[in-house]
Design a protein that fits this description.
The protein is of the alpha+beta class and 205 residues long. It is built from four helices and nine strands; from the N terminus they run ααββαββββββαβ. The radius of gyration is 36 Å and the shape is elongated.
């Protein structure tokens, strides 16, 4: 018995969609390339932050001269270079070593000694009248040391004063110490200092 040609025809096999797969593969390759480029660009991103160039003790003012610009990957925790003017004059809350990138937790507002009624007095002291390694932020006693025993004994003029600045050793103002004192005492302290009759003693912390 013969069968018709229509009954013996095999079903059509769906054609493979090779162009669609090829296009999909191309898109994946392009996406990977774009991701690589974006990652490389982001890796090259830098933000300018504040780095400290000298050792600053806890409580010491942060001068502009101690700040330098450092470019780092943007992480959000370091203080931007654009804030350097605002931060100048604030003080450290911890000891900061050279090369440290400054964070907000390392700073605190300027000391409360700079208020009405307080005076900043500069003392030009000789060796033996100033402790070694004294830095801004230290606490000191200010002592009157008479030039001769006949003038009386040494006495404490200010039991606890904050050092506001110290000149670099060997510099033109070497031996100069700036202290914050009560305004009523500053004329007397300045007078004794001009005679070489002032010494400072560092207080323990």
């Amino acid at each position: 018995m013969l069968t018709s040609a229509h009954s013996t025809r095999l079903p059509d096999v769906p054609r493979e969609r090779r162009p669609a797969f090829a296009l999909l593969g191309l898109l994946l390759v392009l996406a990977g390339a774009v991701a690589t480029v974006v990652s490389a660009v982001r890796a090259g991103d830098r933000t300018e932050v504040i780095a400290i160039t000298q050792r600053l003790g806890a409580g010491q003012p942060i001068p502009l001269a101690a700040m330098s610009k450092r470019a780092v990957a943007p992480v959000g925790m370091y203080l931007p270079w654009s804030e350097r003017e605002r931060l100048a004059g604030s003080v450290t809350s911890v000891t900061v070593l050279p090369g440290t990138l400054l964070t907000r937790a390392m700073t605190t507002p300027a000391a409360t000694e700079r208020v009405p009624g307080k005076a900043r007095v500069g003392l030009l002291l000789k060796p033996g009248q100033i402790p070694d390694d004294l830095v801004a932020g230290d606490r000191v006693q200010i002592v009157h040391v008479p030039a001769s025993p006949a003038a009386g004994e040494s006495r404490v003029l200010v039991p606890n004063a904050r050092v506001d600045g110290v000149a670099k050793p060997g510099g033109p103002d070497s031996g100069r110490v700036d202290v914050m004192v009560d305004g009523t005492l500053s004329p007397q302290i300045a007078e004794y200092a001009s005679k070489g009759e002032i010494a400072v003693s560092e207080l323990g912390t």
